[in-house]
Amino acid sequence: MSIRSKVILTVVTMVLATTSLSGVMIYNKMANIESDHYHSTAVSSLDHVEHVIDQYFDSYTKSLEIVSDTMIMNNFHSDDSQALELETLFTSYLETYPDVGYIYFGSADKNFIMQPPQEELPDGITQQNAPWYTHAVESGGAVSWTETYIDAFSGEPIITAAKPVYNTSGKLLGVLAIDLNLVHIFDALSTIKIGGDMGYPILADSFGATIMHPNKELIGMEIPIPEIHEYIDKNYEGMTQYNWNGDKKIAIIRNVDSLGWKVITTIDEEYILMNVQALIMPLLLISMIIIAVSIFISTLITKDIKKR
After folding, report:
1. Measured between alpha carbons, how far is 42 from 266 in angstroms, rounded to an integer?
2. CA–CA distance from 125 to each of 151, 209, 256 (Å)?
3. Which residue spans within 21-171 are E strands per DSSP?
4. Which of 6, 60, 68, 85 has its CA 20 to 30 A from that of 112?
């Protein structure tokens, strides 16, 4: 091999190695930057979802506290006139809060008043050992929320909030409760995009069952991803990676402490790398230009050496 060829080969090899190494380093750096950017924007979006949920349910918590502290409730006696007064109060409440399907009061002496009235009630709802009643009594006076469930009347997802009612002497008079329809809040939350347009929020209850998902068929089913379940079981927040049908995915999990819910978003890793991969062609073009220039320069140098 001639000296000229050796010089050209050496220069091209060195330039190619340098540009390749630089390209790999730049690609990895950009991939990390893009991943961090997605994580930051996704967390910001999930914060917004959590804020919307907290505000929405806080308004109903406060409304239940106000109703439970009215004179009618604090001086309840099981007679017809009191029942009529409660029905009037409950009707006014439903007009103010249209997402509430039912408001009802179970008294300590086993009376039950409900608006709107139903001829047939679900089994056990009026009993004092019903979960909505017992949890409220055990709450120490605070409003307690149940897990989500399907309403026996409408077939839609609802959640019950309940609060114990006491008289001025501290005697338990009963428990006041509302059944809150979740369709509207879920519809509002489902329009929120996570990380731009790349993801969407999913809601799971404290047991890992899906309560909100774009695919309605998955509602009520457990999330079949062990990595996400580990976060739910341990009440963790953060980001985890997993494989699903051969695709690498990323999940970010946040807690809604007031309800025990989890807000989850997932995305394919390839979407995060789309912006990075768009840099490959410019990098290749620049590398080819550098190699061409290096060949041209090395050719000039070797010509000069040959003349000498």
Report:
1. 10
2. 12, 23, 27
3. 100-107, 112-115, 144-145, 149-150, 157-166
4. 60
Residue range 277-298, pLDDT digits in tens: 666 666 667 767 776 766 666 6
> In the chain, at which residue ranges do the beta strands (DSSP E only) sit?
100-107, 112-115, 144-145, 149-150, 157-166, 172-181, 202-204, 210-212, 238-244, 247-256, 261-268
Residue ranges in the chain modelled with pLDDT below 50: 307-308
- Res 55: pLDDT: 92
pLDDT at 36: 65
Q: What per-residue confidence (pLDDT) applies to 172?
A: 92
pLDDT, residue 129, reads: 78
Give the Cα separation of 308 and 295 in Å (integer): 20
User: Which secondary-structure segment (H or E) carries 40?
Assistant: helix 3-68
Q: Classify domain 32-55+197-275 at the CATH superfamily level.
A: PAS domain (3.30.450.20)
Is CATH 3.40.309.10 what the domain over 69-184 is classified as, yes or no?
A: no
Number of neighbouring beta carbons within 10 Å of residue 205? 20
Q: What is the rounded CA–CA span in Å between residue 220 and residue 222?
A: 7
pTM equals: 0.74
The domain limits of the chain are 32-55+197-275, 69-184
Q: Which two tokens stand for residue 273?
A: 């790398």
> CB-based contacts of 258: which residues, under 8 Å, 6+ apart?
53, 54, 57, 58, 145
Contact 45, 194 (CB under 8 A): yes
* Equal CATH topology for 32-55+197-275 and 69-184: yes
Instruction: State phi, psi for 263 to the nearest 5 degrees.
Output: -100, 125
Provide the β-strand partners of residue 256: 261
175 touches 165 (CB < 8 A): yes
For residues 241 and 270, give the distance between their C-alpha atoms in angstroms, rounded to a whole number.
13
- Check residue 2 and give its pLDDT: 64
